[in-house]
Structures are given as C-alpha cells and as structure tokens.
Amino acid sequence: MPDATPAATRVAAVVYNPIKVDVDLLKTIVATESSAAGWGESLFFETTVEDVGQEATKEALAAGVDLVLAAGGDGTVRAVTEALRGSGVTLALLPSGTGNLLARNLDLTLNDLEHSVHTAFTGTNRPIDLGVIDIERQGGTRDRHVFVVMAGMGIDAKMIQNTDDDLKAKAGWAAYVRAIVTSLRDPNELHLRFRKDDGPVVREKANTLIIGNCGSLPANILLMPDAVVDDGSLDLLVMRPGGVLGWLRIWTKVAWVNGVVRRTKLGRTLVGEHRNDHELEYSTVKKFTARLSRPEEIELDGDAFGRATAFNAWVEPSALDVRVPA
C-alpha cells in the first residue's frame, strides 16, 4: 500500500556505496524525483570499508527518515536491510552491483537509475520475508545477521571466498567462473547434524547446503524454483554430487531444466515438478539448525562471512516493506 504520511513531511535517506554509483548523478536524480513527489530534501549517507551500510542506515533512522534507498551491490542491500529490521521503515532498491539479487527476484528494473528512483518516491510497498541467522564461531561466540536472498555453505561459500575482487570489478559475474573451478577441486564435504523445524536431529554429508529466501541468480539460473520472497518459508537445498558427472547432472537440472524449461508454461507441463534425488534435494522450513564437525565457510547474500561451527536460521514473514512500481 502507498505510504499515507503527507508527502511534504516525508524525508528519504540514500545509503550509497561510492564505488558502485555516480554520486553526482545520483544526487541530481534523487533531488528531481523527490521534489516532483513533494518530499522534503533527501539525506545522503556514504558506506565505507569499515561500515558497509549498517551504521549509515542507523544514522538515517536516527534522523527520522521515512524511506531508505539502498544504492550499491548485494552487500549494501543486505547491510541496509539488517539495520532496517524491526524499524518499520521502507526499503527502496537502486541496483548498482554485479548480482543485484533481491532486485532480480522482485522483477525490478536493473539498469535504469531514473526509473528506480522514480519507483522509490511513487511506488507502493510490497512486504517480503527476511531470513535471520545466528552464527556460532569457533570459541563459542555468536553473531546475528539478516539475509534477503540466501545463506550457504559448501561450494557457493568457497566460490565467494576464492573470487578475486579486482577481477570481479573488471569482469563482473564472469569472475566467478575461475572461482568455481578452484572450489570444485576441494574434495571436502560438509559433515553436520541438523534439525528442520521441530523434527528429529539428522546426520548428513553433503557438498553444499543453501537456505534461500528467493531463488533466481544472474545468467538465468533458477537455483530454487519454488522459493518465493513472500511465502513465509525458507527453501532448503542440499547438493550431493557424485564426482564430475554428478556436478554435470546438477548443472543441467539447475541451469537448463529450472533456468530455461520451467520458466515456460509448456516446459512446466512437459517436465513436471522437480523430484528429489540423492544429488539434488529441496525442502521448505520455517527454521533450520545445524552443527558442523569442523568450522566451515559461510556466505550471506553473496558475501563471505567467515567460518561457522554451527548456526540457527529462521524466517520472519513479511518483516520488510520494499518499494515496487505502482
């Protein structure tokens, strides 16, 4: 629903990554669109290496803003969202990164800054779910974070850890290809005990474990075909490839069957629903708890988050309003 607050009293904040955006152009477009919508003068908060967005967003909230525009990559969006959790303040996305994962899953415009800013000031609010995760570190310390797209262990976390940031800045999504090859050479499996919702504790060996709030990735990859950003659930994906051929079968199912065939009505009719097998298994949960046999790399929304010995993840339904076109 549209914000009912009188426009003249509303103020927006822009939390931006100066490496990802043309700051002068951004300020010009925001000033034009906010004025046209009758809003007050917008506030601007810059992220830094030390603060990727949480503290900047907290400053914006302390200033009493009604809307926060996140201008940056997936890391900026995740950090802003983490600070917005529980505030009741709406998020608007100005996609400016390589992946733009949340924007993709909401079918928002990716390469039109004017349209994105216009949507921020004239659009409507769409409630989406948030994933929340408590990560336990070696030594017993814990830290809590939010994810809007997915959290993962295994090849995806190793891939992100192995990605060259300089190459990523120059080559974009293609930079992950080299990292994937490096990660596939790692023979180590995840050994864990986990619990879905209030079910029994299960022992598992897997190559990759992903908990998703939504499932579309760049390059037309539909990693989790049934994941919906506002269904009140998290989707769980477990991969157990049997060597190189196993990875090829998984890639065919994810990139071709999910990413191409199932995107059409005819394709869905022909292939039907995904049937779980030993290599690729999907399920849904409200909460998921796991403990690892050794510290493992973990990623949230495409950013490395160090090593975890255990974690507890859950969904908070409709916990965040995101501005979408009216």
Automatic annotation (TrEMBL):
Question: Any idea which UniProt keywords this protein has?
Answer: ATP-binding, Kinase, Lipid biosynthesis, Lipid metabolism, Nucleotide-binding, Phospholipid biosynthesis, Phospholipid metabolism, Transferase
Coiled-coil portions: none
Annotated DAGKc domain ranges read 7-137
Task: Give a yes or no for keyword Transmembrane in this entry.
Answer: no
Which Pfam families does its entry note? DAGK_cat, YegS_C
**Molecular function terms, GO-annotated:** ATP binding; kinase activity
Task: Return one Gene Ontology term, BP aspect.
Answer: phospholipid biosynthetic process
Cofactor list: Mg(2+)
Per the record, its GO cellular-component terms are:
plasma membrane
Per the record, the similarity remark reads: Belongs to the diacylglycerol/lipid kinase family.
Protein's recorded name: Diacylglycerol kinase
